[in-house]
Design a protein that fits this description.
Radius of gyration: 16 Å
Shape: rod-shaped
Number of strands: 4
Helix content: under 10%
Distance between the termini: 39 Å
Structural class: mainly beta
Number of domains: 1
Strand content: over 45%
Length: 66
């Protein structure tokens, strides 16, 4: 369940792929792709304001060490 926005019942699944690139000894970049999909018990669509059963997101995180 995606609390508090959804009461949909079913299987929530995710696959995440990420890398770490050490730019220098003080800076690291970590890009990530995530794919989520939902297998409902009914006809629920939980992503994209109720339009989709799947979504893909991307993220780039910068870590600064001191």
């Amino acid at each position: 369940m995606l609390f508090p926005t959804s009461t949909a019942q079913g299987d929530f699944n995710a696959l995440t792929v990420g890398l770490r690139w050490d730019v220098s000894k003080n800076v690291s970049l970590r890009p990530e792709l995530r794919y989520d999909w939902f297998e409902p018990l009914d006809h629920d669509r939980i992503y994209g304001n109720g339009r989709d059963r799947t979504q893909m997101t991307g993220l780039v995180e910068a870590l600064v060490y001191f």
